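Researcher: I need the complex structure. Ligand is S-adenosylmethionine. Inputs:
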Amino acid sequence: RVTDPKDSPGSTQAEVNTDEVSIARVYDFCLGGKDNFAVDRAAAQAMMEVVPETPLLAQVNRCFLRQAVRYLAGEAGIDQIIDIGSGLPTAGNVHEIAQEKNPDARVVYVDNDPVVLAHARALLATDANTTVISADLREPDVIFGHPETRRLIDTSRPFAILLGGILMHLEDEEDPEGIAANLRDRLPAGGHLLVSNTCDTGEPRAAELARVFAENGMGTRCFRTWDEQIRYFDGLELVEPGLVPNNEWRPAGDVPDPDNPAHALHIGGLGRKVR
Ligand code: SAM
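Model: Output:
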């Protein structure tokens, strides 16, 4: 176990368990990062045995995220973003992309993994307009009541909430639809919600990959259907092209292996609150 006392402003120490699979670290491995342990690499290998394109899906999810953030900070004029389940720092972090379009853009990164927190503090919270908090998607009041969120996000003005690859890790009992609704309700007119997740396309390998996610403690409902996931956007207007495979969302030409049919297994979309 690695402990980092810096992450424990109270009495409890944040602990990094190197024996248990971490979603953030598996994802980091798939993106070619180095912040992962043997247990995470073994989980990723098991995924790649059933779907060799698993790393491709992670990489293209980042392509989608980058494009959506460019759209938000550019065309949509959004200058405040809350990225929930932000993951480990990687190439093209949300604040870097947003600040390329608008140097004044503010970003609050949120994650519940202590490894993310430790790395993110060093690498993401590099300016006064960017911060990182340790909080859980299942507790939106904690996220929105956090002093750092209140410092950087004016919820009376349009802002965006990013849920990249996170709702999929919630069980049905944890009510992902209810949580999405709770977050949508917090958006003022002009606010945006981004969602991306793995998708149950009905093909056998989707079910097989879902089984490997579950066996590795990453959630038993990681693969929901498009029909289930479109409900996350209830009441919002979908930004074109809608909820689509990540490679099809306004691709910038940086999508690797763009015609691979595996792309159908990971979908994403962006919704805008009209009023
Ligand atoms: N959002 C990034 C992206 O789309 O590229 C990273 C996605 S990664 C697959 C999912 C992240 O969500 C991980 O960093 C994990 O620690 C975090 N996460 C999972 N469940 C969470 C929860 N209940 N609350 C906060 N973060 C969570």
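Model: Summary of the prediction. The radius of gyration is 17 Å.
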